[in-house]
């Protein structure tokens, strides 16, 4: 992506290419939405992620629960409540975006 200043994890970058023509990616009927590439900067600005969690980048959400990758890092997906950014540690959810999608489909009630 031209409008961010860090390297995206390889699996996540591959995922973004796969959903490029869509309006984002809905994980089944769970309510979890993963943003399309064009929406990522705006979503991060709206929720002030750069201010409260400067090492992370928001990639999707379900209501107040948001999902993140760590900048210039591996493919691990994290979660945090949007109201707790900067005050609660990120919680690891999955090792990559594809495992995250499968996890949400199987265990969404546990998020």
TrEMBL record:
<protein>
    <recommendedName>
        <fullName>SMI1 / KNR4 family protein</fullName>
    </recommendedName>
</protein>
<dbReference type="InterPro" id="IPR037883">
    <property type="entry name" value="Knr4/Smi1-like_sf"/>
</dbReference>
